[in-house]
Design brief:
Pfam families (chain A): COX4_pro (PF03626)
Protein name (chain A): Cytochrome bo(3) ubiquinol oxidase subunit 4
Strand content of chain A: under 5%
Structural class of chain A: mainly alpha
Number of domains of chain A: 2
Subcellular location (chain A): Cell membrane
Strand content of chain B: under 5%
Oligomer: heterodimer
Subunit structure (chain A): Heterooctamer of two A chains, two B chains, two C chains and two D chains.
Family (chain A): Belongs to the cytochrome c oxidase bacterial subunit 4 family.
Helix content of chain A: 55-70%
Structural class of chain B: mainly alpha
Helix content of chain B: over 70%
Chain lengths: 123, 209
C-alpha cells in the first residue's frame, strides 16, 4: 500500500504486510468456502466413510489455517528479517512433536494396558 | 590456556565503537508479540493433545453426538469469521487515518465477538443443565478446558478492544495506538486460527466418532 509505505520506511516500524481490501475479502471468501465444505461433509454425511471424512476435514482445516496466516496475519518470510517466520516454523515443529507424540504414546499406552483386568487368564 | 599466551601483543586492540543504530520506540513490539502468540499456540497445542487423548473417555456419560449442535457451532464459526474481516476493515481504516470509521469497525468487531461469546456460554449452560458438567467425564473435562480457554482469550480480546476504542477516542490514531491496534489484530486473527482447530477437531471430529 502506498499509503502506509511512508510511515514504515527503514524497516523499523512494524511491517504491516500487504493489508488491502482485496486481500481481506479474498481471505474471507476462501475461509467461508473452506469452513462450509467440512460442515456440509459432516452434517449431511456426504462421504459415508468416517475415516475418509476425518482426513478430508483435517486437510480443509490445514488449508484454512494457511489462508488465515497469509491473508489475515500477513505472514511472509521477509517480515522482521524472517524472524517471525522462524518463530512460526519453530512453533509448528514443537506443536507437531507435542501433538503426535502425545497421541502416539497415549494410544499405545491404552492399547497395552487394555488386558490388565483379565489377569486371571494369564499363565 | 596456551591460547592466551599465543595472542599477539603487537596488534592494536580493536574497539567496536559503532553502536547499533537507534531503534524507534516499540520497534520490536510486533516480533515480541508474535513470539507471545507462538507461546500461546503451544498452550493450545497441549490442550488439543489432552483433548485428543481424553476425548474418547466418556465414562458412560454423554458423547459428542448427544451434546453438540452443529448448527450452533456453524453460527459461532460465522460470528468469529465475520469479526475477523471487520477487524481487517478497521485496520484498513487505521491505515487511511480515519478515526470514525476505525471506531465503527472496531465496534462491529466487538459485537460479533460478544455474539460468539454469548452463543458459546449458551451452549455451555445448556450442556451443564443437561448434567454434562466438566466433572462428568475426562472427555468433558478436556472439552471445557480447551473450548473455555479459547473463550477466555476472546473475552480478554474484547476487554482489550474496548480499551483501545477508548484510547483511540481520547488520543486518536497516534503511532502508539496504531501499534496496539496491530497487536490486537494479530491476537484476534490468531484466535480465529485456533477456532479452526476447535471446530475441526472437537466438534466435527466429535460428531464423526
Amino acid at each position: 500500500m502506498s499509503a502506509n509505505a511512508g510511515m514504515h520506511h527503514g524497516g523499523h516500524e512494524a511491517p504491516e504486510g500487504h493489508a488491502t481490501l482485496r486481500g481481506y475479502v479474498t481471505g474471507f471468501a476462501l475461509s467461508v468456502i473452506l469452513t462450509a465444505i467440512p460442515f456440509w461433509l459432516v452434517m449431511d454425511n456426504v462421504l459415508g466413510n468416517k475415516q475418509a471424512a476425518a482426513v478430508v476435514i483435517m486437510v480443509f482445516a490445514a488449508a484454512q489455517v494457511v489462508v488465515h496466516m497469509i491473508y489475515f496475519l500477513h505472514m511472509n518470510s521477509r517480515a522482521e528479517q524472517g524472524w517471525t517466520m522462524l518463530a512460526l516454523i519453530f512453533t509448528i515443529v514443537m506443536v507437531v512433536i507435542a501433538l503426535s507424540g502425545s497421541l502416539w504414546v497415549m494410544y499405545h499406552l491404552n492399547a497395552n494396558m487394555m488386558p490388565v483386568h483379565d489377569m486371571r487368564s494369564m499363565p | 590456556m596456551t591460547v592466551i599466551a599465543t595472542q599477539p601483543q603487537s596488534i592494536e586492540p580493536v574497539f567496536h565503537l559503532e553502536d547499533e543504530h537507534a531503534h524507534a520506540d516499540g520497534a520490536s513490539t510486533m516480533l515480541g508479540f508474535w513470539i507471545y502468540l507462538m507461546s500461546d499456540c503451544l498452550i493450545f497445542a497441549i490442550l488439543f493433545a489432552t483433548f485428543g487423548v481424553l476425548g474418547g473417555n466418556y465414562a458412560a456419560g454423554p458423547a459428542p453426538k448427544d451434546l453438540f449442535d452443529l448448527d450452533l457451532v456453524a453460527i459461532n464459526t460465522a460470528m468469529l469469521l465475520f469479526s475477523s474481516i471487520t477487524y481487517g476493515f478497521a485496520m484498513l481504516a487505521v491505515e487511511r487515518g480515519k478515526v470514525g470509521s476505525t471506531q465503527i469497525w472496531l465496534a462491529v468487531t466487538g459485537v460479533f465477538g460478544l455474539c460468539f461469546l454469548g452463543i458459546e456460554l449458551f451452549e455451555f449452560a445448556h450442556m451443564i443443565g443437561e448434567g454434562a458438567t466438566p466433572q462428568r467425564s475426562a472427555f468433558l473435562s478436556s472439552f471445557f478446558t480447551l473450548v473455555g480457554t479459547h473463550g477466555l482469550h476472546v473475552t480478554f480480546g474484547l476487554v482489550w478492544l474496548v480499551t483501545l476504542m477508548a484510547q483511540v477516542a481520547v488520543h486518536g490514531l497516534i503511532p502508539a495506538n496504531r501499534r496496539r491496534l496491530m497487536c490486537l489484530s494479530m491476537f484476534w486473527h490468531f484466535l480465529d486460527v485456533v477456532w479452526i482447530g476447535v471446530f475441526t477437531f472437537v466438534y466435527l471430529m466429535g460428531m464423526l466418532r
